[in-house]
Amino acid sequence: TAIMLLAQRQQAMRGVPCARSSSIGLRCATAPARPLLAMRNRPVHRATRADQVTDTDSDVLLISEVSKAVDSLLKTTVEANTEQGRAPTEPMQTPLRSRVQASIGRVSKGLLERDTEVRLLLLAALCREHLLLLGPPGTAKSELSRRLNGLVGGKYFERLLTRFSVPEELFGPLSMRGLENDEYVRQIDGYLPTAEVAFIDEIFKANSAILNALLTLLNERLFDNGSARLEAPLLTLVGASNELPESEELDALYDRFLLRRHVSRVTNANVHQLARLASGRGMTLDAEDEAKKAAAAAGEGLSLQDFKDSAKAAYEAVDVPDA
After folding, report:
1. Rounded CA gap, 243 and 137, in Å?
2. Are 39 and 50 in contact (CB under 8 A)?
3. Using 50, 70 and 90 to split pLDDT, how confident is the model at 321?
4. Residue 93: its pLDDT value, please?
5. Relative to the CA of 265, which of 44, 67, 126, 209 has its CA 20 to 30 Å away?
6. DSSP string, 122-182
7. Measured on CA atoms in the order 299, 197, 201, 253, is the torsion positive or negative?
8. Cβ(243)–Cβ(136) under 8 Å?
9. What is the C-alpha separation between 236 and 148, in angstroms, rounded?
10. Chain segment 207-224, per-residue pLDDT in tens
11. Angle 115-127/304-317 helices, nearest 10 degrees?
12. In whole angstroms, what is the distance from residue 61 CA to residue 42 CA?
């Protein structure tokens, strides 16, 4: 129907009379070949229905043939694009990629069913974003952050929050000397404002006294200490919780975590492996051989400078058009 309406409009613009019957057919007077219907590389004079074609109509192009040609072309294009998308592509092997693969092997060594969590952890640190791990106790949430700190080698901060936690637990105690000089400043050395990797358990139990400073620190990497606004060297913060936030005032804190992952317990198929690890006997021979091969294939891991520079280099490599 759209083809016929377009043909009728083109004929009207050329001043050629067209008559539309009560059926879906369309007959027009003789006119030059139109681009839409010139699919046979010959002059086309009118389009009509198949049941209206006579033996003398040698210059008739059936609408069904037009639709068939369009469908065939569309099918060919879709199949070509599908095959191209399925074709395996070899990833470019770069020094950074090699160090990332080596770091994945180092962090995941001795952990069961935590490959995805390890990759998300390294991705968050490389992108200078934050990771939220949701799951029951005993699923290696804190162990993952400690292993990341062992890989990074920077300053590490860890704390378990309760509903009665005070800001001093995260941001440091007030300076007595500062109070003597009428200054409201904190001793932040060794606390969250100076950490490069941090882990906060039960993070959604943060109260309003902690929330405002924590939001600014996570999003802008800034901390207000008295009248001074300090830059925080934080690479990533791993937040853990057994449940999702319940109050609306915690929605802003939840949004600060770009990466979120639900961590499940070890499946029944690997409980025996977990028992061996817990008893100190290590993994089975097959799993141990795989771990040794992965360690042998792994080279030098990521350094602290890699985590600091990778995000900036990636952002500079992306060209965002004006419109």
Report:
1. 11
2. no
3. confident
4. 77
5. 126
6. HHHHHHT--EEEE--TTSSHHHHHHHHHHHH-S-EEEEE--TT--HHHHH-PBPHHHHHTT
7. negative
8. no
9. 10
10. 888 998 999 999 999 999
11. 70
12. 10
